[in-house]
Amino acid sequence: MEIKVLGTGCTKCKTLEKHTREAVTETGITAEIEKVEDIYKIMSLGVMQTPALVINQKIVLSGRVPSVAEIKEILTKNQ
Amino acid sequence: MKNIKNAIWLPLALLPIWYVIYHNLQPMTDWFIDTVLGMTKGVHLTEALRFFVFEFPKVMLLLTLIIFFVGIIRTYFTPERTRKALEGKKTFTGNVMAATLGIVTPFCSCSAIPLFLGFVESGVPLGVTFSFLIAAPMINEVAIILLYGMFGWQVAAIYVGTGLAIAILAGWIIGLLKLEKWVEPWVYQTHMGDSGSEEEKLTFVKRIHLGYDAVKEIVGKVWIYVALGILVGAGAHGYVPEDFMAALMGKSAWYSIPLSILIGIPLYSNAAGIVPIVSVLIEKGASLGTALAFMMAVIGISLPEMVILRKVLKLPLIFTFVGVVGVGIMIVGYLFNYVF
């Protein structure tokens, strides 16, 4: 699984990255997590509201920071 | 299943409790100050303490309730939907819509750039985009609630109404000036990828949970500013003379409005902290127009946001933006000092 955490570096984005890493570890899914901070790249992915989570090129979440439990759910759904 | 039921029943059960507490705060405060603490009525310290013990829970109760509902309502307004609604809209109608949507669409200055790009990219006119960018931070839900709590609904309505007017007119003027040349050229070259994402589908229970999240996030963040602001208010309540601010920020001091705005622009404060301060200023003789102008300058035009926007806008456009909004706020200030 290829996961991208999109955010320009605000606190919310950092929290999302942290939660995502925790969720990945807890579910035991093998995933590559990449943090995307470059605004051009974020735009080219079609995201208007950061922080956002992209799994396998698909935006699954944008504009908010969900709990670890919720990310786990999203991860299993998009597996 | 249990979780789902709780999400709906808990707020309904809490509502009457909220109502009873909210409407009995004054007697409860008086009982606490006069009977439990046994303090002497009329003494400065007593009245300052009374002010804090009454105002702080009142504002917190209002904040919690309204942020909860705002949090739910906001799940229906995403920037993507707002953008779709604004696509291809003619100016003025577009400006009115953009400013109105600016109030309800969730906005954080850290997403100002992707939002700006997304709007301009999909053909939303520059002026319409600005109406949104002006209204979104300036008409702040926390400020509305606090103004309502501390001054009543009239002042809250004035704030929303004039804020909207400024956002609509300023965006419209920026549109008329045809300033596209001052947008960084790369903005028009960027092609926003199509995410192809199906929008997150939210159940009503999920939306309620997002309402809770909003309360946790916003109230958790602003309570300290509210407490500090009201503390300053309580301190000034008994100790600072009534007409202390009259000479400086009263109606007779015509220069006070532009001066307040100039001071307010670089000042960057949370709306939650500024409203109690504004209430102190007014109580101590500042006129409503001047105090409102000061508040709007502080929360509406923020230096960090300008720095962020510099990535997509050239300096002359940023100055035009600040100038037009500043003049708008000034007119509002004079209007109120003249009418009231």
Topology:
The complex is a heterodimer of chains A (79) and B (340).
Chain A: E1 2-6, H1 11-27, E2 32-36, H2 39-44, E3 52-55, E4 58-62, H3 68-77
Parallel strand pairs in A: 1-2
Antiparallel strand pairs in A: 1-3, 3-4
Chain B: H1 2-23, H2 25-36, H3 44-74, H4 79-86, H5 93-104, H6 112-121, H7 126-138, H8 141-151, H9 153-176, H10 186-189, H11 204-239, H12 246-249, H13 256-264, H14 271-283, H15 288-300, H16 303-309, H17 315-339
Query: Would you tell me the overall average pLDDT of chain A?
Result: 86
CATH topology name of chain A, in short, is: Glutaredoxin
The unreliable regions of chain A are none
Computed Rg of chain A: 11 Å
State the total count of DSSP E strands of chain B. Answer: 0
Largest sheet of chain B: none
Terminal CA distance of chain A: 7 Å
Query: How many helices of chain A does DSSP assign?
Result: 3
Describe the main β-sheet of chain A briefly.
4 strands, mixed
Taken from the alpha-carbon principal axes, the silhouette of chain A is: globular
What's the architecture of chain A in CATH terms? 3-Layer(aba) Sandwich
Most extensive contact: A-B, 22 and 26 residues
Strand content of chain B: under 5%
Q: What share of the residues of chain A does DSSP label as strand, in percent?
A: 15-25%
CATH domain class of chain A: Alpha Beta
Estimate the global geometry of chain B from the Cα principal axes.
flat
Rg of chain B, alpha carbons? 22 Å
Tally of separate domains of chain A:
1
Broad structural category of chain A: alpha+beta
